[in-house]
Specification:
Length: 297
């Protein structure tokens, strides 16, 4: 089962709701989601999250530098509260985190109420803040699209600003072939028949990848708002538990900038390490992101 994040463009503004209230009108449960291609994305995500991370990286390596904008978002499974997990996220403002909509889907998971920012370790270090508000994109409807989940992104407002430096959203995702990097705390082994039994590291993992052509993902999956991504290393890709995490590229000065949000697999029905990944394009949604932050304080 593979997983990543998908995105489709929509210029609507979501209505913010306090934590505890639904943030997205999703119409499928984890089980239902797992029956479709769009489900593979959220289903894999579910399993990953419930086990302790949100899409870790298969055949990646321990992080080699500080990523002050990396965020872990603890969640609890709805179907089985005993399952604890984490989604990824990116700090894009002193008090705003960008993640995947299915990471805040009330039919899949319950937010534990806090996030950890800027640490290479899932359960220690960095800065911990409470989530004051969650806003998911109004166009996201998990499982309703036969091809893939669209508009799969959400914003989390923190109760107080943090001192960690946010990552800048790139003006463009770059052309196919552009070198990128993925980060996550997800499983490092995708061979388990049950994704929830994967091997989830406490140390942040990274993987060097590249933007792929639309044709390198399944027909209808990638496009201007959903980025097809392939690994530069054999048998390696983000996986169960990395959902919501960042896809990065270097700017002209060598600084990291955000281009994607982990959403799901680029080809349904294959293991994470065997296929491309699909990412929501952060640049394509920059307008919605900035408007939403402005309107919700």
């Amino acid at each position: 089962m593979d997983q990543f994040l998908l995105v489709a463009e929509a210029e609507h503004v979501a209505t913010a709701r306090p934590i505890g209230e639904p943030v997205s009108s999703l119409k499928s449960s984890c089980r239902t989601v797992a029956r479709t291609a769009a489900v593979v994305l959220a289903g894999a995500l579910c399993a990953a999250m419930m086990t302790g991370s949100a899409e870790a990286v298969v055949n990646g390596k321990d992080s080699t530098q500080r990523y002050p904008f990396m965020v872990s978002v603890p969640v609890t499974g709805v179907d089985d509260p005993a399952f604890k997990g984490v989604c990824g996220g990116s700090l894009i403002d002193s008090k705003w985190v960008l993640t995947a909509a299915h990471c805040v889907d009330p039919k899949l998971v319950t937010l534990d109420g806090t996030v950890r920012i800027g640490s290479a370790w899932k359960k220690s270090g960095g800065t911990v803040r409470s989530i004051a508000k969650a806003v998911s994109h109004p166009g996201y409807k998990n499982g309703e699209n036969v091809v893939a989940n669209r508009d799969d992104l959400a914003l989390l407002r923190l109760d107080r600003p943090v001192s960690e430096k946010p990552v800048r959203i790139a003006d463009t995702p770059g052309r196919p072939g552009t070198p990128t990097r993925l980060l996550g705390f997800g499983t490092v082994d995708d061979t388990a028949s049950d994704p929830a039994k994967g091997v989830f590291p406490n140390r942040l993992q990274e993987l060097d990848t590249r933007r792929a052509a639309v044709s390198e993902c399944a027909p209808g999956f990638a496009g201007s708002t959903r980025l097809c991504t392939v690994s530069q290393i054999p048998k390696a890709m983000a996986c169960h538990g990395d959902s919501g995490g960042p896809q990065l590229r270097r700017d002209r000065k060598g600084r990291w900038e955000l281009i994607g949000v982990t959403s799901g697999p680029g080809v349904p029905g294959v293991r994470c390490s065997e296929g491309p990944g699909l990412y929501t394009s952060a640049p394509a949604y920059a307008g919605w992101i900035h408007r939403t932050m402005h309107r919700n304080g």
